[in-house]
Task: inverse folding
């Protein structure tokens, strides 16, 4: 991993969203390159466990969980129904931004909710009831306001319109009890 923060590592290792991590500013301010090698090829689940161990041993990370009532979004299926295509075969989940949108392959709705929580800067809870893995692309071009070249578009409005128009999904504003990770202790990592 290159140029990552402790928060980036925690999000990946524990499958949580940025807004679910509470702690000192150093979690987001300090950047690191992490180089590690496994003795043999391992899957993502094993790599995540290895990252948890690294965070505990090298960064002395300790935390506890708290439930907090937060403003959030529920990702739901729109009234006209979802427009997603189930993935064929098994593959590693990927979601990538493109110049005009995003492309997802073999992605669960929880993974997608975690991904869109970042630009929305608030928790997104998967309430779609969709359990499969999906391939889809979103083109934001048709959802940008006419004056988008001179005025910065509202990210939330564009995201909501594109999700419903392209995927048949909807973001519904809500308050919900969200499990957060409250960081009790973290240090700069020890040198090799």
Result:
């Amino acid at each position: 991993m290159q140029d990552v923060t402790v928060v980036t590592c925690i999000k990946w290792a524990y499958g949580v969203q940025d807004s679910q991590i509470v702690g000192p500013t150093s979690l987001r301010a300090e950047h690191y390159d992490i180089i590690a090698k496994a003795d043999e090829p391992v899957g993502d689940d094993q790599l995540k466990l290895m990252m948890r161990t690294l965070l505990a041993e090298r960064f002395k990370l300790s935390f506890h969980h708290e439930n907090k009532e937060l403003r959030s979004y529920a990702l739901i299926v729109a009234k006209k129904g979802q427009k997603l295509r189930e993935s064929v075969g098994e593959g590693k989940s990927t979601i990538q931004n493109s110049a005009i949108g995003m492309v997802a392959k073999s992605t669960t709705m929880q993974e997608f909710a975690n991904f869109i929580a970042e630009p929305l800067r608030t928790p997104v809870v998967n309430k779609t009831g969709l359990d499969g893995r999906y391939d889809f692309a979103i083109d934001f071009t048709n959802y940008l306001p006419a004056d988008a070249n001179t005025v910065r578009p509202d990210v939330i409005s564009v995201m909501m319109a594109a999700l419903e128009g392209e995927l048949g999904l909807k973001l519904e504003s809500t308050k919900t009890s969200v499990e957060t990770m409250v960081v009790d202790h973290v240090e700069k990592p020890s040198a090799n």
Notes: The helical segments are 6-14, 26-29, 44-58, 109-120, 155-167.
